[in-house]
Amino acid sequence: MATSAAPPPEAVRGGVSKTLFVVTVVIVAIIAFLGGVGVAGVILPRTPPAKTNLIVATNVPFPPFEDFNTTWGGFEGFDIDLSQLIATQLGRTLVIRQFTDFQALLGTTGKGGVDMAASAITSSGVTGANRSKFMSFSDSYYDANQGALVQTSSTFACAVPSNCTGADFANLNVGVQQGTTSEAWLNDNKDPTTTVTPFTAVDTMLAALRLGSIDAVIIDYGPAQSFAAGSGGALRVGGTIITNELYSFAVPLGDPDRILPVINQLLTQIKADGRYNTLITKWFG
């Protein structure tokens, strides 16, 4: 039996079928919804709000690059001053985040847990190449070497004070901070009789040196000088280790925030206009 294509009488209201009526209602409802929330908000992705802060990771104590001033209760140092210039250039407020573990600082920066890291971070050599696999670097802003820090009463002396070698640390227990180029250099150059004692925090390492639990500390030369000067005569720099390192600022891998061009341009500007040399004089004398 053939069936009629026409809707039954009860399905017709004023010449409009139920199907057409329902579709019309749905369309009207959608239009009303879009009108309430804004069509652009639904169809186009919203632009994320501009960042107001520059979150910078650092690892203190590591003067003169970064330290905490207990007198006025704030961070200070060469890296901190440069970070403030970068924040100002970006139109943001500088916020310093302290990490007691240098390795955690590097890992957090690479994963985007902070906007930038300013902590005397070596970006050159094998260490820099390995770090570049999980973080991105600015142009370099400082050339550095390593230093040997010992008790003033120690008989330690490098055969050539201006260029210590691994053999100079024979039969010594030497402290290094984990994850640093100091640790890498000692592991690569140590005498078989040298004991390597890694520390997470610099202040714990220095306390061990003062107590005589370790014989020497290998640390970046600038901080070695600062710690000796601030030790009240208890510590001295026993020699220089030539490593020819370059320091850079670090940002999350790939620079998702696109701040490296701003940092690099600023570094070029302050080296040209004298502000860089002013900061060198301020922090290094």
Description:
It is a single chain. The chain has about 280 residues and is an alpha/beta fold. It folds into two domains: about 55-145 and about 245-285, Periplasmic binding protein-like II (D-Maltodextrin-Binding Protein, domain 2), CATH 3.40.190; about 145-245, D-Maltodextrin-Binding Protein, domain 2, CATH 3.40.190. Helix content is about 35%, strand content about 30%. It is built from ten helices and twelve strands. It is globular. The relative contact order is 0.16.
List the topology elements.
Layout: E1 12-13, E2 16-17, H1 18-37, H2 39-43, E3 53-58, E4 67-69, E5 74-76, H3 78-90, E6 93-98, H4 102-110, E7 116-122, H5 125-131, E8 135-151, E9 173-177, H6 181-189, E10 195-199, H7 202-211, E11 216-220, H8 221-229, E12 235-252, H9 260-273, H10 275-284
Parallel strand pairs: 3-6, 3-7, 9-10, 9-11
Antiparallel strand pairs: 1-2, 4-5, 7-12, 8-11, 8-12
Given as residue ranges, the uncertain stretches (5+ residues, pLDDT < 50) are 1-44
- The whole-angstrom Rg is 30 Å
How large is the share of residues in beta strands? 25-35%
- Tell me, briefly, the overall form: globular
Give descriptors for this structure.
D-Maltodextrin-Binding Protein, domain 2, globular, 285 residues, two-stranded antiparallel ribbon, alpha/beta, 2 domains
